[in-house]
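Summary for the steering committee. One of the milestones for this cycle was to obtain a three-dimensional model of the protein with uracil bound, which we needed before selecting residues for the alanine scan. The sequence and ligand used are listed below.
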Amino acid sequence: MAELEARPGAEQWVPAAAGVDELRLAAPQCRGCELWRDATQVVFSRGRASASMMLVGEQPGDREDLEGEPFVGPAGRVLADAVDAAGIPREGIYLTNAVKHFRFERRGKRRIHEKPAVGHIVACHPWLEAEFEAVDPSIVVALGATAARAVLGRPVRIGQLRGKVLLPDAAGSASALPAPILVTTHPSALLRIEDADDRAAAFTALVDDLRTAASAAV
Ligand code: URA
Ligand code: SF4
């Protein structure tokens, strides 16, 4: 019960019919769930509202939490390399996360990333919806299972859906989607692959998926 009371959801903090700048200004006030309490700051998004491709990640990591910008850490570097390799101009991309505060567990001095719970994804969803409206992307790319769950509103197996362009009507989503969706792996999954050949193959697959998404965006 206490858990439920701690998560009213972000809705009351999200300004109606707001542009991206207005959303960014409002986000630090959000108390939609308890994650704001231990995080350094909210990490909202990066990129222009005019972008045609929206990339949705999971949640900010340690570096992002400290810097207040999404995808500035190791996973962000992999993602930027993949975007470049796919030949997608960075100005054409809007980067955000399913959950806007860093969830972690303290171990001594270290902060260990902890996956957001479904309750956090649901609580934070009003921000993502407001971003869909403000950016009105031509394609949404969900990076990993958390993002896919947030975007589609249902549990998703990446292996079954990855790399396919899902049209809004056919995506089986619980709510209306703004654009076709493409689900792919999260760039941090690549960082965990030890074998260099396997990692290179996973990178190529991510680049291929981003290319597919870019060609669906026109
Ligand atoms: N991983 C994410 O999903 N998002 C970030 O912003 C950084 C790492
Ligand atoms: Fe609000 Fe999302 Fe942060 Fe929770 S994680 S406080 S819902 S912005």
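Key point for the committee: The chain has one domain: 2-217.
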